[in-house]
């Protein structure tokens, strides 16, 4: 469902995640972004970042003191699109809430945490929630 909602905007869910993380956290280093990514956890996010930079959604700057480090931030177009993605996410959350009506959400969340927490994406998600 997310893929279809993002398609008219010309971005993938992974690219949308980069935009939302930068919108929520401001400027991040490449490694800092990589630690928060759920979609690419355990991998190098360089190619993903290259795509959003090439699309004009993210600006990449080299650290003035140490050229090995990159700082990533949203361009105005990236900020606009990140806001649209936030609206899409909110609609998905409302739909999920409606679908879970009457279910024991605590039991469901416990099950989901037990399933995902040991995985690299679970570790990234928990790190993101801890920073929240």
UniProtKB/TrEMBL annotation:
Family annotation (SMART domains): HTH_MARR
GO biological process assignments: response to stress
MF GO annotations: DNA-binding transcription factor activity
InterPro entries linked: HTH_MarR-typ (IPR000835), MarR/SlyA-like (IPR039422), WH-like_DNA-bd_sf (IPR036388), WH_DNA-bd_sf (IPR036390)
Lineage: superkingdom: Bacteria
Domain HTH marR-type: 1-117
Transmembrane segment boundaries: none
SUPFAM superfamilies, per the entry: Winged helix' DNA-binding domain
UniProt protein name: HTH marR-type domain-containing protein
Natural source organism: Streptomyces rubellomurinus (strain ATCC 31215)
Lineage: Bacteria, Bacillati, Actinomycetota, Actinomycetes, Kitasatosporales
């Amino acid at each position: 469902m997310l893929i279809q909602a993002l398609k008219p905007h010309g971005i993938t869910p992974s690219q949308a995640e980069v935009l939302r993380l930068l919108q929520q956290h401001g400027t991040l280093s490449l490694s800092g972004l990589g630690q928060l990514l759920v979609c690419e956890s355990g991998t190098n996010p360089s190619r993903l970042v290259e795509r959003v930079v090439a699309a004009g959604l993210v600006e990449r700057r080299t650290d003035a003191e140490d050229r090995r480090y990159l700082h990533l931030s949203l361009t105005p177009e990236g900020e606009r699109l990140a806001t649209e993605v936030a609206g899409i996410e909110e609609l998905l959350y409302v739909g999920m809430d409606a679908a879970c009506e009457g279910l024991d959400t605590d039991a469901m969340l416990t099950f989901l945490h037990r399933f995902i927490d040991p995985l690299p994406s679970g570790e990234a998600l928990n790190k993101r929630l801890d920073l929240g």
